[in-house]
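new request in #modeling-help
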Amino acid sequence: DSGVTQTPKHLITATGQRVTLRCSPRSGDLSVYWYQQSLDQGLQFLIQYYNGEERAKGNILERFSAQQFPDLHSELNLSSLELGDSALYFCASSAQGASNQPQHFGDGTRLSIL
Amino acid sequence: GENVEQHPSTLSVQEGDSAVIKCTYSDSASNYFPWYKQELGKRPQLIIDIRSNVGEKKDQRIAVTLNKTAKHFSLHITETQPEDSAVYFCAASRAGGGNKLTFGTGTQLKVEL
C-alpha cells in the first residue's frame, strides 16, 4: 500500500460524458501528479499540483482539467469523453514539488469508454 | 522536451542470472532518475532512484548506474527470482519547472525457472 488513495477503481461510461477521478495523497505529501497509461502511449504525465497551485503541465487535453483542494486531495475532470480516453489514470504524490522528489503511485482508476 | 529511450523491450533470463535494462535521456538538465516495477494490473512501484550527483546506488539485489556524460542510466538486478517478473520503467525528471517524470516505454522482464 503506497498511501495514495484513488477512487473509483473502475469507471465505465459512454462517449460524450464527463467523469471525475479523485485522489488523496500520502499523509504529509504536498504535491500531486496525474498520469495516463494506455497501451499505445505508455505512461504520460498530465499535470502536477503543489500545495493547491499548478506546478507543471504535460500534454493534457483541453477537455481535461484538474485541481488540488485546500485539504490537498485532487480531482481530475475528463469531459466530452472519446473512445481514445480509455486508459488507466494514476495519481502520484511526493513530499515537495521540486525535481528529484520520489513519487509514489496510487492503484489507479481504470476508465472504459463504450 | 525530454525523451527517454529504454531497451530492451522484452528480456528473458533464467532464475539466478542477472538482468540489465538500459535507458538514455536527451535533456542534459535532467537530475533525477527513478525506476518503477509494475506487475500486471497493478500500480507502478518505485524500486530505486538515483540523483545526478551520484554515479551508482545499490539496494540489496538491485543497483542503478548513471553516466551523465553519455546521458544514460541502467538498472541491474542480480540473482533474479520469479517474483522479479514484471514490467520495469525508467524515468527522468529535469531540474526546475516541477517534478514531471518522462517515462521510457518499459521492459517486460520474465524470469524463467
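bot summary: DSSP finds no helices and eleven strands in chain B.
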